[in-house]
Amino acid sequence: MKNKFYRGGDISVELSHVDKVFWPEEHITKGDIIEYYDKIYPYIIPYLKDRPESLRRNPNGILDRGFFQKNVKEIVPDWAKTIVLYSESAAKDIEYFICNDKASLLYLVNLGCIELNPWNSRISTIDNPDYCILDLDPSEKNTFDDIVKVALAVRRIADVAGIPSFCKTSGATGIHIYIPLGAMYTYEECRAFALLLAKTVVKELPELTTIERSLKKRPPDKIYIDYLQNKKGQTLASAYSVRPRPHATVSTPLEWNEVKTGLRPEQFTIKNIFKRLDKNGDLFAGVLDKGIDLKRALQSLETT
C-alpha cells in the first residue's frame, strides 16, 4: 500500500508510511490501524468530541516506548481545531488538539497515535467532568481474576447506593469503571466522591485493595484503586482506543455479566471488535447520560 490521502470536505490528510510495521509479531501495519480508526469512527467520536487530547505517540510501532505530547502548537495544520489552556503543573499555556471529525482522528493516527487519550471534560464545561472514574491497577503479583473481583465489589457497592456504573477493559492490565456525572460537578467534587467510593471498596476487600499510590509503599499483591484520575487534565485511553500492546488490544466496554473469572483483556482486539459491536452496539453510551445526584450518592455511600 502506498501513501494515500483522506479527504473530508475541503480537508485533505496525507496518510504516510502506511506500510510501516507497528506490530512485528502480528505483522500489523500503520495502515491497518488507520483503517481501524476509519471504521470505528462512529463509535469512538462521542468519547473524543470537544475534549482536549493528550497525544501518546508511537510513530515507530509498539516496540518503541514512544512519547506523550500535549502542546501541538508547532505541528498542527491550519484547519485543525485546538484550544489554549493554562497548565498549572507546567506553569504555562498549552495548545491542545481537539478531535471533532474523522479528518482530525486520522491526522492523529498518522502522527503515530495508536492510543487516544481525551480529557474527562469538554471545552464547554472544562472544569466539570462528564464522569467519575475508578482505574483498577494491578500490582506485581495480582492476576486479572483479582481485578475482576475488585471490579465486582465496586459494582455491588455502587448498586447498593443506587449509583449506575459502566466498565471497560483498559486494553492493558486493568479495568476502568465510569459513573456518569453529566458535567454537573467540579473535578474536586468528583475526586472526593471517587475517594469515598475507593475507601468503601478497600474496607470490603482490605486484603486485596489499596489507595496507596506509591509503588514503593504499596504491597506487591494489592490492586491500586486509582481515584486520582479524576483531576483536570488527567487522561485514560478512550473507549474503543487501540493500545500499543501485543495483539493490538482495544479498550472495550463490557456488560457487567461478562465481568467474571476467566475474563482477559487480550480477548478484545482490532480483529474482533466489529463483530462484537454488530451484536451489542455501544455498551458505553450510558456514561454520557444524565449524571447522578452526587449529594444523594455520597449520603448512600456513607451509610454503606
Polypeptide structure, described:
The chain is of the alpha+beta class. It has six helices and 15 strands. It has a six-stranded mixed beta sheet with strand order 13-14-10-12-11-15. Strands 5-9-8 form a three-stranded antiparallel beta sheet, with no helix packed on it. The longest helix has 18 residues, at 187-204. The model has no long low-confidence stretch (mean pLDDT 96).
In short:
The protein has helices spanning 30-44, 102-110, 144-160, 187-204, 273-280, 294-302, and strands spanning 4-8, 11-15, 21-23, 28-29, 52-53, 55-57, 67-69, 81-87, 92-98, 131-137, 166-169, 175-180, 209-210, 223-226, 253-254. The protein is of the alpha+beta class.
From the N-terminal CA to the C-terminal CA, the straight-line distance is 58 Å
Number of helices: 6
Low-confidence stretches: none
Question: What is the average per-residue confidence, as pLDDT, rounded to a whole number?
Answer: 96
Strand content: 15-25%
Structural class: alpha+beta
Largest β sheet strand count, sense and barrel closure: 6 strands, mixed
The spatial strand order of the largest sheet comes to: 13-14-10-12-11-15
- Give a count of the beta strands, DSSP E runs of length 2 or more: 15
Q: Helix amount, in percent?
A: 25-40%
Reading the helices and strands in chain order gives EEEEHEEEEEHEHEEHEEEHH
- Which outline best applies? globular
